Amino acid sequence: MSRQITLDTETTGLDPLNGDRIVEIGCVEVIDRRITENHFHVYINPERDVPEDAVAIHGLTNEFLGDKPVFAAVAQDFCNFIKGAELIIHNASFDVGFLNAELKQAGFPTVDELATNVIDSLAMAKNMFPGKRNNLDALCERLEIDNSERTLHGALLDAELLADVYLRLTRGQNSLMIDNYLDAATTSDDGSTPIDKTPVIVLAASEDEMKEHEAVLDAIEKENKGKACIWRIEDIPETKEE
Fold first, then answer.
1. Band (151; pLDDT cuts 50, 70, 90)
2. Are residues 61 and 168 in the same domain?
3. Which of 58, 86, 62, 87 is nearest to 157 (CA)?
4. Full residue range of the structural domain in which residue 215 is found
5. pLDDT single digits (tens) 22-42
6. Residues 27 and 115 in one domain
7. Do 15 and 76 lie in a common domain?
8. Average pLDDT over residues 194-206
9. For the stretch 93-106, what's the b/e string if a residue is b when 16 or more beta carbons lie within 10 angstroms of its beta carbon?
10. Within a domain: residue 240?
11. 154 near 58, Cβ under 8 Å?
């Protein structure tokens, strides 16, 4: 039996090292590629104020969270739910960083000690769709998943959507991602369907076009008082992308 869990959190901000805390955890169980009705969902009192910019994202106010349990009170149940499972998280480093900070403060094992593996679905999507938007809303639109109820971020709803997204991203040779490549294929004698290998035509920019491109980048850097243009930065840091 393969047990996987899609997981999402909502927080008071972007950095647990600056005192930001988790305010909601949502988990959805997937067994042998089938979504079950076994969910874990909890709102958490962060024991601090929730900034207005965070409330604008997930709608969880100080008043709403005031009577909810603190993380330490739900930590054991959370650990029991994810123990021995493979976790699927969109932009995993963000959520795992917060979870590990909370678990450490409450005296519990880290995510890596509890789960068998962590899959970053954002990294997977970027590999499949390079150069495209790969947040959860964009993937739902691309993969034809109904996300009309997602007016605000919510950990359980996002975990449910992520389960659908992950299953479609990994559904094999009938995957939506390669359907277009199979349209021109022919059936072989053994009944298999090989992928059409028509060469891809690549048009390289001319020397003059490259000079014009560099001139545009120079102008952008000048407008930004010499700050390096993003297209000239090799290592761009990751941000929270849902």
1. low
2. yes
3. 58
4. 202-232
5. 999 999 999 999 999 999 999
6. yes
7. yes
8. 54
9. ebbbbbbbbbbeeb
10. no
11. yes
What is the per-residue pLDDT across 212-238, written as a single tens digit (0 to 9) for each? Answer: 777 777 777 776 667 665 566 554 445
Per-residue pLDDT reduced to its tens digit, 85-102 = 999 999 999 999 999 999
CATH at 67: 3.30.420.10
Instruction: Check whether residue 228 and residue 148 sit in a common domain.
Output: no
- Does 111 share its domain with 171? yes
Q: How many residues does the chain have?
A: 242
Measured CA angle at 179 (ends 174, 120), to 5 deg: 70
pLDDT digits (tens, 9 = 90+) for 41-69: 999 999 999 999 999 999 999 999 999 99
Q: Which two tokens stand for residue 204?
A: 């390289």
pTM for the whole structure: 0.71
Would you say 184 and 198 are in contact if contact means Cβ atoms under 8 Å apart?
yes
| Tokens of residue 190, six digits | 């053994």
Active centre residues (catalytic): 153
The answer to whether position 239 is within a domain reads no
- Residue 128 placed within a domain: yes
Domain count, the chain: 2
Answer yes or no: is 132 within a domain: yes
The secondary element (H helix, E strand) that includes residue 92 is helix 92-106
Q: Taking residues 5-19, what's their average pLDDT? A: 96
